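I hope you will forgive my troubling you with a question about protein structure. I am sending you one protein, given as its amino acid sequence and as whole-number tokens for its backbone shapes. Thank you for your consideration; the sequence and its tokens are set out here:
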Amino acid sequence: MTITWTEASARRLERQFLATPAKTGTTVSDVVASMLGAHAQVLSAAELSVGVRTEGATRADVRAALWEERSLVKTHGPRGTVHLLPADELPLWCAALTAVPGTGGFAADARVTEEQAEQIVAAIADALDGVSLTVDELDEQVVARTGPWAGDLVMPAFQTLWPRWRQVLHRAGQSGALCFAPNRGRKVTYTRPPHFTPLPAEEALRTLVRRYLHAYGPGTPAWFAKWLAAPVGWASALFGRMAQAGEIEEVGFEGAVAWVAAGDTEFPRDRPFRGVRLLPYFDAYGIAAQPRELLFPGAAYARALAGGQAGNFPLLLVDGEVAGVWHQRRAGRRTTVTVEPLRKLTARQERELGEQVERVGEVLEARPELVIGEVTVGPHA
């Protein structure tokens, strides 16, 4: 079976609720599940990622799911970066993410041993059980539970040095020992998510591969590894075990071998996606959809990627391909959305762009103004 880029793109956009937003009544956590997590280093970007995929939703709905309903958890997800994840999927995510081998480490005089890392994670879980702490308060608790070595200032960070234990912070999040709590004023706080029993590691990894291929397939071990920041050889071995067990099947995709979940071979053959969409920083689609040279064709590859890294610029999608970048600057209740197209838009596309800008304003609860012109700020500004 051979799949074209147009077919794969149309199916991915459908399954991402980007072709048609999720109808009213679909929960915010269901939308986040379809994305395999919403990048949330900047929470407003996650709110926009979810909002543009969900009919009628605003940032208030995302915050309610996160802080009131607790159907979402803000924690360390794929690649160790901060994500919103469905709370009921933590048994899957934590089991899978903690089974992914690391691809690098800290300097020898800074790193911790595996035994020390386990001590730190246990100390974090114990310290955060039932309470919310700032990072400085957590620092005191971790050192008290482990020893002075955990507080040694050995990690270079933002023109200063952080204590040794913080190199395990993302691991604590990925293992379910830590998640974010509401800010205390301007200070970030952490707490512990509800206790749960992780899935068996191999089951979780295989489930995550199937979920990844459902959302972003056809895929390859190398693309899956890039999405997780995992070793390619490890991912290849995992795909090999699943292929041998009949859980995934091989297809042709743009002249190369790729994989889909077994039996998941329906693609929209005669329904290419046509439309305009605005995606924020580090949107899941811009990060995970591959191959990059087809998602970012021509001038988009140089303009919308920062040194080949996806996510640093908000994206203008036209007919499923990156066709520009954009930036929004908020002032009070107004936000100015500057869009820089990389090719001439048709009258229909300009009209749809205006509608998308209005939707951005609705999600962010602001009055938007569209400006078509050069985006002068740099990546992740």
